[in-house]
């Protein structure tokens, strides 16, 4: 047989082998050509965003925040305190050291964010701004401008916020996006795809709030301490979860303890806690939160919850189509007087690093109580909460509009005299009460009959939920 006939002969291969070979060829092309190009393109966009925020917004992101995630995980893995905790775990459990270090790496991978400046400032900010302004009339109710102006650019700023809704993340992040990129402590609720990927890209770190694993807690502690020492702006909800009844919840100070146990009084950075108060005319989760506070009440399953959400969305889309849709009232944020940890510690003659475990916890709790008092002082009084208070105080009474306005105005003046920050839309007290009453009647929490307004008996728990958001302000001392 000639050589030419051998070369001309057809060679047949199985179909599955051809498909596999083609897939491998496509993968090789992507890996060697398109992926590097995409990475180069993405890096270019990130660099342009970083340059913009440095020049236009005058935000200087700390190098820690833009360090590659793999590097931060390795730093945690080889941190001396984490290594010591791993050695102790290996001794206590008789596990091989490699198995314990694998556990450390898994915990670090779970905690450490994957901050992306482009995702945060271009995508995240735009989405947060659009969503917040579409759903609410977003307002800055109060800010201690003089106190905020004294915060040095090199200080580590920590916003401590009351937790009313999952919208808190979006609302506060949107309002401060032109000054800082906030890293949130986020619970395990967000560890589902694709929320987890998005949350990590926005710089949030995950926290197992009820974990009793000492090794996990050491890894979390060291991450928080590193981020704080590096100047990363953070936001923490001291209550540890959403309020179920509208009242401020008893605080938890674990994250604050992690921030302070390594705090150097004479270091280059101070840590500054800024109390933040948030309130809404409507909280989306209100009914589900109230249901969770009633242990004897049967909770709806996943299907029922999804059906409720679908009905809510459908109803609002129908209202939009008929041009009868209104935003969900006002969402108001207030920024209180910053608390310098350095000044606080020096005034009390304490160094957190040198205190015993029990003494340090006592000092952290004392500081935490001051912070919570600061948060309580600046929770804004919004129209719905103000008007709901009158209905809850006298649930069997039928109010004329004039009587209700007179009572609400009296409460408004009393709150202002006590130092509370009442948000008055348009600077018009009469309009503020109209807004609150309209929201309550539109939601059918209050009914009008023969010119008189009465709370619906079955909706009193929900009215109480909104009234409770400002109930603590009746005893607030006058602000400085």
3D architecture notes:
The protein is of the alpha/beta class and 480 residues long. Among the domains are: 109-284 and 328-378, Glycerol-3-phosphate (1)-acyltransferase, CATH 3.40.1130.10; 383-475, Orthogonal Bundle (Arc Repressor Mutant, subunit A). The chain is 54% helix and 10% strand. It has 20 helices and eleven strands. It has helices at 3-8, 15-55, 63-66, 69-77, 80-93, 97-111, 117-135, 145-149, 167-176, 195-201, 214-229, 254-260, 286-292, 302-321, 341-348, 357-378, 383-393, 401-417, 429-442, 460-468, and strands spanning 137-143, 156-161, 183-186, 205-206, 234-236, 271-280, 330-335, 339-340, 399-400, 446-449, 452-455. The strands form two sheets. Strands 1, 2, 3, 4, 5, 6, 7 and 8 form an eight-stranded mixed sheet that branches. The chain has a three-stranded antiparallel sheet with strand order 9-11-10. α5 crosses α6 (97-111). The N and C termini lie far apart (104 Å). Residues 35-44 and 53-58 have low confidence and may be disordered.
Shape: globular
Counted by DSSP, the helix tally is 20
CATH class of one domain: Alpha Beta
CATH superfamily of one domain: Glycerol-3-phosphate (1)-acyltransferase
Mean pLDDT score: 84
């Amino acid at each position: 047989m000639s050589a030419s006939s051998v070369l001309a002969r057809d060679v047949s291969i199985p179909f599955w082998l051809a498909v596999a070979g083609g897939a491998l060829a496509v993968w090789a092309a992507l890996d060697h050509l398109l992926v590097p190009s995409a990475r180069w393109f993405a890096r270019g966009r990130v660099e342009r965003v970083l340059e913009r925020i440095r020049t236009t917004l005058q935000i200087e992101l700390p190098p820690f925040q833009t360090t590659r995630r793999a590097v931060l995980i390795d730093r945690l893995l080889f941190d001396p305190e984490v290594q010591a905790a791993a050695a102790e775990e290996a001794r206590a459990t008789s596990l091989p050291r490699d198995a314990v270090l694998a556990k450390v790496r898994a915990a670090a991978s779970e905690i450490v964010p994957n901050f992306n400046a482009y995702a945060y400032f271009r995508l995240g900010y735009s989405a947060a701004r659009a969503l917040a302004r579409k759903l609410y009339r977003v307002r800055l109710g109060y800010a201690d401008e003089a106190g905020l102006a004294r915060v040095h650019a090199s200080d580590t700023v920590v916003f401590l916020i009351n937790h009313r809704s999952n919208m808190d993340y979006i609302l506060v992040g949107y309002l401060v996006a032109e000054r800082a990129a906030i890293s949130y402590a986020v619970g395990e609720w967000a560890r589902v795809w694709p929320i987890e990927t998005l949350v990590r890209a926005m710089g949030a770190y995950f926290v197992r709030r009820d974990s009793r694993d000492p090794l996990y807690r050491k890894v979390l502690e060291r991450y928080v301490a590193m981020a704080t020492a590096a100047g990363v702006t953070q936001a923490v909800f001291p209550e540890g979860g959403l309020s179920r009844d509208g009242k401020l919840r008893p605080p938890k100070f674990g994250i604050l303890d992690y921030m302070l146990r390594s705090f150097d009084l004479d270091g280059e950075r101070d840590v500054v806690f800024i109390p933040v108060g948030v309130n809404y005319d409507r909280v989306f989760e209100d009914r589900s939160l109230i249901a969770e506070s009633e242990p004897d009440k049967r909770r709806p399953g996943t299907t029922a919850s999804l059906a409720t959400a679908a009905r809510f969305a459908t109803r609002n889309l129908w209202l939009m189509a008929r041009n009868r849709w209104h935003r969900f009232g006002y969402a108001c944020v207030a920024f209180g007087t910053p608390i310098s940890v350095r000044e606080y510690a020096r005034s009390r003659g304490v160094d957190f690093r040198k205190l015993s475990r029990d003494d340090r916890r006592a000092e952290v709790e004392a500081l935490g109580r001051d912070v919570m008092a600061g948060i309580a002082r600046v929770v804004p009084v919004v129209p719905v909460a103000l008007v709901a208070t009158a209905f809850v105080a006298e649930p069997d009474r039928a109010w004329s509009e004039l009587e209700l306005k007179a009572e609400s105005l009296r409460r408004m003046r009393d709150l202002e005299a006590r130092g509370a920050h009442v948000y008055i839309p348009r600077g018009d007290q009469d309009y503020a009460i109209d807004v609150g009453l309209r929201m309550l009647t539109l939601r059918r929490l209050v009914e009008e009959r023969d010119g008189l307004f009465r709370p619906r008996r079955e909706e009193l728990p929900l009215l109480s939920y909104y009234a409770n958001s400002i109930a603590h302000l009746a005893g607030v001392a006058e602000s400085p």
